[in-house]
Amino acid sequence: MKLTSLTCAVALIGGAAWAGEVAPKDVAYTEDGAVEASLSGVAGDAANGAIVAGTKSKGNCVACHAVSALADVPFHGEVGPSLDGAGDRWSEAELRGLLTNAKLTFEGTVMPAFYKVEGFIRPGDAYTGKAPSGPLSPLLTAQEIEDVVAFLATLKE
Ligand code: HEC
Q1: What per-residue string of b and e applies to 59-80 under the rule 16 or more CB within 10 Å gives b?
Q2: pLDDT band (50, 70, 90) for residue 78
Q3: I want to staple 93 with a disulfide (CB 3.0 to 4.6 A). Which of 34, 55, 56, 66 is the partner?
């Protein structure tokens, strides 16, 4: 127990990855863009995944996708297909790959890569318009990705 809290404290202070977490640059993709291994090593929480998916400052998936399970969140977009039944259409590994970097599943897609910090073309700082000073953070954390994967897996036709 003591060791666990110490590890957490160190991770928070150092901004370092949690024990057992896969860093964005270390994610192993299959040929089809799927990711077999959990990014966090901790099982996803579908309820929190639903919150992440519906929250503007987090996944904001509803900006582009309709999702019947998130009917209480207003204004669903139609840029991408409805996510209803996504848990039937895709395996957990495929869903994880789609969230981590959708470009490897759908070439040239407008869907953001939610767990990627390198390889962008001139990323800008939203507030100053200048190049960001520090290293980029992924749009979602490893655990948030796992939570959204768990949520999507519950979306059956
Ligand atoms: C900027 C718009 C945009 C956002 C934001 C976005 N997506 Fe997508 N997504 C797309 C588009 C467009 C496609 C279709 C693939 C293509 O042809 O580009 C897609 C495809 C998908 C698919 C596969 C479609 C299927 O059969 O169900 C899943 C699953 C998915 N997105 C999940 C998500 C989740 C979960 C989030 C939030 C974490 C998200 N998307 C955020 C645009 C977006």
Answers
A1: bbbbebbbbebbeebeebeeeb
A2: very high
A3: 34
Would residue 10 count as lying in a domain?
A: no
* Confidence grade of residue 136 (pLDDT, cut at 50, 70, 90): confident
User: What average pLDDT does the segment 44-59 reach?
Assistant: 97
**Nearest residue CA, atom 18 of ligand 1?**
109
Q: Which of 57, 64, 88, 96 to mutate to test the pocket of ligand 1 (most atoms within 8 A of CB)?
A: 64
Tell me if 7 is assigned to some domain: no
Instruction: Read off the CATH number of the domain in which 38 is found.
Output: 1.10.760.10
pTM of the model: 0.86
